[in-house]
Write a structure and sequence with these properties.
mainly alpha, 3 strands, elongated
């Protein structure tokens, strides 16, 4: 018979006849697992009870930033500066939403994972901080160079480098977030 088990240290959820010998998220032993009852609820109630502010907040930079980079690429290929202008506005939204994303992520880390000092959390906090700083620098740089697509080579290359660095940050943040979600679901 399948039972749902929860790690009392980090909140990891495992389904199986027995708890895992070692928690794949925090490394706790099987004695730290307790069986949990999975309640049946209506769809609306389930949505309210399981609402994840961090997951919602994280999708803004994880979706808007790649879209912005795509718009810059379209602007380069087609020579349409309106795409780059749209990308700038998307970057502004990423910058505005970054503090909420970080705050909800830190809250989730503290509530669901008891502020465990695992490497994955350190990486996510460092990447989120880096993304926020890069977003501030990129928006400020672009604001001071509104005609970036007509700018000299080194100015344009710096702008592209900043965008690619931000894209790397959101890609890794999404990767580590996905690993945590899969670990919580017991599918690591």
């Amino acid at each position: 018979m399948t039972t749902t088990w929860r790690c009392t240290v980090c909140g990891y959820i495992h389904e199986g006849e027995e708890p895992p010998e070692i928690c794949p998220v925090c490394g706790a032993g099987s004695e730290k697992f307790v069986p949990v009852e999975v309640p049946k609820a209506g769809l609306l109630r389930e949505m309210i009870e399981t609402f994840q502010p961090h997951a919602v907040a994280a999708h803004f930079p994880n979706a808007l930033l790649p879209t912005g980079v795509l718009f810059v690429a379209i602007a380069v290929v087609l020579g349409k500066s309106s795409f780059e202008t749209a990308a700038f506005y998307l970057l502004c939204v990423v910058l505005v939403t970054a503090p909420a994303t970080m705050a909800t992520g830190i809250r989730e880390w503290q509530t669901k994972f008891d502020g465990q000092k695992a490497v994955i959390f350190k990486k996510k906090i460092a990447l989120a901080s880096c993304l926020t700083l890069l977003a501030m620098a990129t928006v400020a740089f672009r604001y001071n160079h509104p005609e970036i697509m007509q700018a000299a080579g080194s100015v344009k290359l710096l702008y592209f480098a900043l965008l690619l660095a931000m894209l790397g940050c959101v890609t890794l943040l999404g990767h580590y977030g996905g690993k945590l979600v899969l670990a919580l679901m017991g599918r690591d």
